[in-house]
Specification:
- The structure is a single chain.
- The longest helix has 31 residues, at 22-52.
- It contains three helices and twelve strands.
- Helices cover 28% and strands 27% of the residues.
- A six-stranded antiparallel sheet has the order 4-6-9-12-11-10, with helices on one face. It has a two-stranded antiparallel sheet with strand order 1-2.
- The protein has one domain.
- Strand 7 and strand 8 form a beta hairpin.
- With 200 residues, the protein is α+β, with helices and mostly antiparallel strands.
Length: 200
């Protein structure tokens, strides 16, 4: 922008420099800060949920192996020890460091292997044969307890957790799958509930 300016009786042309004022820059910084403050919690929740869902393939694999075991032996296999899950179901859980897996049966006589029964069960609205629970780990302890739920002993040589999880929270697969929807505070979808794990 060119302006005509009178200086010491002479008329001269000056070009004004184009730029942002300090106030304008401060307004932009404040707006960016507000947007970041609103967005980061949603982004963090999304990342946490995606990490929790890393348990899904192993939950499904354990469930498949349970059905094979039942067809062969006539009972389900339940255990709070990952080593016995490995030796009886043939599943390797050493790489799943962020989780500790438990298989529990509602009726003890339908289950071999010293399974947890009763309070280990998440409410489903039906009578499941077994549930596979993936407890979240955030420290490299070998043994976990979660209130009145089943305890869990991690497998020998298991990798350590990455530290993002909240210990004691869990993802549950129930077989046969309950109807989709809310039951006693748990949301079930396709036989799984992430309600407890995502309540952080």
């Amino acid at each position: 922008m060119t302006m005509l300016v009178q200086h010491s009786g002479k008329m001269t042309f000056h070009t004004a420099s184009a730029g942002f004022t300090l106030v304008e820059l401060m307004v932009v910084v404040v707006v960016i800060g507000i947007l970041a403050g609103l967005g980061i919690p949603y982004y963090s929740s999304y990342v946490y949920a995606s990490r929790v869902k890393q348990a899904v393939p192993l939950l499904n694999k354990i469930s498949d192996k349970e059905r094979i075991y039942y067809n062969r032996m006539g009972t389900w296999f339940g255990s709070i020890t990952e080593d016995t899950l490995h030796s009886n179901l043939g599943i390797d859980l050493t790489a799943a460091g962020d989780f500790c897996f438990v298989v529990s049966c509602q009726v003890a006589t339908n289950c071999t292997g010293g399974a947890a029964v009763g309070p280990a069960f998440a409410a489903t609205g039906n009578t499941p044969s077994f549930q596979v629970v993936a407890y979240l780990r955030n420290k490299a302890a070998d043994y976990y307890t979660a209130g009145n739920r089943a305890s869990c002993l991690v497998t020998t040589g298991k990798s350590g957790p990455m530290g993002w999880a909240t210990t004691g929270q869990s993802v549950v697969l129930s077989y046969p799958p309950p109807a989709d929807g809310w039951v006693s505070g748990l949301l079930w979808r396709n036989g799984m509930s992430f309600t407890n794990a995502l309540a952080n």
